[in-house]
Every structure is written in C-alpha cells, then in structure tokens.
Amino acid sequence: MTVLDDHTPSNGHSGRSTPPAVTPPGPWSFPQVARHTLGNGIEVHAYHLPGQQIVAAHLVLPTPLSAEPADREGVATITTRCLDEGTRRHAGEEFAELLETEGAGFGIEVGLSGLQAVLDVPVRRLERAFSLFAEAVTEPALAAEDVTRHVQLRLAEIEQARVNSAARATHEFRRAVFAADSRAARMTGGEPDTVARVMAEDAAGFHASWFGPVGTSLIIAADLTGIDIADVAERAFGNWRNDDQRVATHEPVGPAPRTAVLIDRPGAVQADLRLGSYATDRADPRWADLTVAGYAMGGAFLSRLNKVLREERGYTYGVRLGFNPLRAGGSYAVQGSFRTEVLVDAVREARELLDVSSRPFDATEVAEAVAYYAGVSPLRFATADGVAAQAATQVLAGLGPDYLDQSLAALRAVTPDSATSAYADVVDPATASLVVVGAADQLAEPLRALGYDDLVVIES
C-alpha cells in the first residue's frame, strides 16, 4: 500500500509528473496606436502598454542626411550629440542634473532617413521629463566648446573605425555598393575632412533650418493609464514653431558599378569579408520572400552559409547574409571574418552557396524561417522600448502603423518557389562586389585568379 503525503503525486507514478502539453503560440499583433495631431502639426503616436512603467519616447524628424551641406557632412551628428549638453535656459551640468533628478535617460539616433531624440523615464516622472526633453530639442545651447569637443570625439571615433577591420570593411562596402554621389556611400557621422570643418555656427544653422514641427512625429509607448498624453505632449511641444524650417525630399539611392577592393592589413592573420550588392527595400512586394530566403541562406546558426563555412569547414566563427533596407533601395551582404589562409576558398564556396539555381529553398527552410519571425516578434516587442523603436523605424521608412502585422501575414504566405524566385531576382553572385580587409601579399593574387582581375588594393 502506498501512503500519500504532501510530496507524493497521486497519478500512480511516484516521483514523476506529466509534462505540460506544448501548444502553438496564439495570435499576436503589434500594439494598436492612438494618433493625435498637436496644434503645430506634430503627429503623436501613443501606444498604451499595460504594465510598462518606463516611458519610451522618440521624437522623429524626417530630415535625411542628404540635407547636410556636402562640405559639412557630419553636422547632423554633431548637432544632435550636443542637444543634451545644455539649453538656453539651463547650462550643461544643470541640465544633466535635472534629467538625472527625473530618472530620465536622453539619447539620439542618426540615420540616412532622419534623426531621432530618445527619452526613457518612469511614467510617474513623465510630465517634468517631457518638458526637459522638449527644451533640449527646441532650444539647445549648441555652445562652441561643446561643438568643438564633439567634433574631436567624432574624429577620434573615425580613427578607431579605420583601424578596426570589421568597421573598415563595412565602410568600404557602402562605397562599393551605393552610387558615389549618394549620401549612403559615406559614413553616417561624416568623413574626416567634412567633420573637421564643422563649427558652432554650422550646428546652429543646421538646427535652425531642419529642426521644427513640420513632418515631425512624437512616438510614446508605456502604460498610459490615467494620462492624457495629448495634453502632456501639447504642453511640452505645442508651442514649438519654426517659420524658417526647411523640408527635405527623400531621394532614392542608386547603385554603384560592381567593384573589388582589398584594403591591405600587412601581417593580418584573419581577413574581413563583405560580398554583396545593391538590393531593395521593405516596400518591395518581394520583401517577405527575401526575408525568408535571407534567413535560410545566412540568417540562422544552421543556415546554408554558416553550416558549411563554419560547421563543416571551420573557416570562421560565424558568417551571415543580411538584407539591409533603406527608405528606398538597400543592399545585401555576406559578412564574416576568416583565417587568412582560407579566405579565398571561403569566397569561392560562398559564391557557390549563394547560387540557388541548382538547389532552391525547400519547405523545411521556409517553415523554419516563418516560425522564427512569428515567434520572435512577441519577444522583440514585449517592452515599451521595442515598440517605440519599431514604430520610429516605420515612420522613417514611410510605412504605415500596421506594417508589422501585414509583414507577418505576408511571411506566412511565402512558398519555396516564391522565396527562391525573389532571391534569384536580387542576389547574383556573379555581379556582387567584393570588399576584403586583410594581408594583400597573401590575398591579392589568389583573389585575382578567382576572377577578380579588377581588384584594387588600397593601403590601410
């Protein structure tokens, strides 16, 4: 006879329990947005997220970096980095202390399609923090000493990037893929010669010309229970006016001719690779197919590229392929770091793997990709910060608030044939540009023998 006590299960299997059944995830949608327009035209996008007690706010200005003067590229980065260095009402240290008192964090994001000022603050401190947030954006001091300091920091940042092989490869790849006359072909934060010219009057002029309410969006995500967010936003930003504000157009980015570049790193024991070309953007009807194809080819640990080049060959710690959309146009790239002695073999095999003419994507690969994106979305957007950042991305890309739901629905409609067809339309290994950062004395001739007879070697 078995005597049951408080620690013995009564299912007839002493010490064992029946595991819970695993069921597929339920339906998920991106949070709904409530929209309001302030008196000065700023569009407020409010996401009510019960339980999220930290507000994530993004003020999005749709000023593309192509608006920068050609000889002062980098001025947008310098200007935005100075926003929280003090205002006309509060000097730098005082302003920092006021933000800290509210438990607020201030940040900026600079991209080709626009600029963002970002605030994180506890919900209970929202109103006072919003006042400071608006103050930083609408009336920054842009003091000469602050501008000079950030110019010097940016120049040091560029030097660090030049000696970092991965960063250098990424920079040179942009030059190789995008038309030379486009802003996308150059560093987001500006090149050394243009950054060095930025003065306080340039930052003030850029702010006066491009910061204003026209076209600006304010995105707020948090538990907004009991908060009249339209009223809070109106009191913080509603008086912002700029009769001299300019409105830029978003010009499409064109492709560059195919090229092959080797940046010499004498004695380097590994080489950084970028292999890819001009591509497309999220508005393309093939985007869902390309997303699935990219995951199968190089977006997962056991994707085709990583399975062969890492797991089977041992050439690298990791290699990936990604599609990187701009507002209009974009690029794709295979990227990874390889031992110098295997780099040429890795390029040869990568080109073979990229060609899907003899091995189209199959149903298992498509199903795994769709399951990944369907499963990761609820996790990526489980926080206010994740929701606000995605909403800001959609605004800057010119996409509607229901973009993510439409995207997930499109992913579920992808088939092996549609993924293979879209991928083959965009990815052609024969026309892909090559960028390598590594030892030229070991790599230049073997790469030329591989077919890159137009290879240009650049001293680092």
TrEMBL record:
Protein name: Peptidase M16 family protein
Peptidase M16 N-terminal domain sequence ranges: 50-166
Domain of life, source organism: Bacteria
Species annotation: Microlunatus phosphovorus (strain ATCC 700054 / DSM 10555 / JCM 9379 / NBRC 101784 / NCIMB 13414 / VKM Ac-1990 / NM-1)
Domain (Peptidase M16 C-terminal) ranges: 200-371
Listed GO MF terms: metal ion binding
PANTHER family in the cross-refs: METALLOPROTEASE (PTHR11851), PROCESSING PROTEASE (PTHR11851:SF224)
Disordered, as annotated region: 1-29
Pfam families xref list: Peptidase_M16, Peptidase_M16_C
